[in-house]
Design brief:
Bound molecules: BIS(adenosine)-5'-pentaphosphate, zinc ion
Structural class: alpha/beta
Number of helices: 9
Strand order of the largest sheet: 2-3-1-4-8
Distance between the termini: 11 Å
Strand content: 15-25%
Order of helices and strands: EHEHHHEHEHEEEHHEH
Radius of gyration: 17 Å
Length: 213
């Protein structure tokens, strides 16, 4: 099964993708994570990517489609979760072509609906385990012991450079201008399903499971 998690920054895409990886043996393909890896590479491409991301703008279609293409060639396990990709209509067309060339299809596009007011609180409170990638929040999802990851015991908690109000405003603008047209695109294809992303994490997990089963 191959699915897209679609929603604005802070909608909970990464949180839900990790749960699907753990419970359904699916593979999370997060272009955000891939780009954060690229920016630490010390290459010219990495420096350009870092600058664009910190401003909250979108990286070029060419770069992200290339990253996805490479990953699709590997293990397929229980299917792919596209997290933060596609984000533009050309990316959506490229994904359709890539999947069909592999004899694969897209099974569902899950739109996570949230309102903008909730996003600021989610983004500014977020931190992540630098060792295993588990996503936490200062208020809604703290580890049992402060500073220690529930999943791996690591103590290397990180905050993202683009998790501030200015950058979030720009990321939201990019979302509404370039990514939200994908909602109509997938609706017209009969693939769109919607879940309430404002519900508690466990209830969002149940809503997504209901779509998939
Ligand atoms: P990316 O890394 O994809 O970031 P994003 O889309 O802005 O999404 P986030 O990771 O911020 O949010 P999320 O929906 O995953 O929420 P999370 O689960 O963490 O992209 C970063 C940048 O990379 C882009 O700005 C762009 O520059 C570039 N980029 C990436 N992909 C690209 C592409 N395809 N094309 C071009 N450029 C691209 O949750 C957020 C917080 O809320 C957490 O603290 C979590 O604990 C909490 N939370 C989650 N769910 C709930 C809930 N139900 N209730 C309460 N709290 C919750
Ligand atoms: Zn961890």
């Amino acid at each position: 099964m191959n699915i897209i998690l679609l929603g604005p920054p802070g909608a909970g895409k990464g949180t839900q993708a990790r749960h699907l990886v753990e419970t359904r043996n699916m593979i999370q393909l997060s272009t955000g994570d891939m780009l954060r890896e690229a920016r630490t590479s010390g290459t010219d491409m990495g420096r350009i990517v870092a600058d664009v991301m910190d401003r909250g703008e979108l990286v070029t279609d060419e770069i992200v489609i290339g990253l996805i293409r490479e990953r699709l060639e590997g293990d397929k396990a229980g299917g792919f979760i596209f997290d933060g990709f596609p984000r533009t209509l050309p990316q959506a067309d490229a994904l359709a072509d890539l999947l069909s060339s592999m004899g694969e299809a897209l099974d569902a596009v899950i739109e996570m609906q949230v309102d903008d007011a909730a996003l600021v609180a989610r983004i500014t409170g977020r931190f992540t385990c630098g060792d295993c990638g588990e996503v936490y929040h200062d208020v809604t999802h703290r580890p049992a012991v402060d500073g220690v990851c529930d999943k791996c015991g690591g103590t290397n908690m990180k905050r993202r450079a683009d998790d501030n109000e200015d950058s979030l405003r720009q990321r939201l603008m990019e979302y509404y201008k370039k990514t939200s047209p994908l909602i109509g695109y997938y609706y017209a294809k009969g693939q769109l399903r919607t879940v309430d992303g404002l519900a508690e994490i466990g209830d969002v997990q149940k809503a997504i499971a209901a779509v998939l089963d």
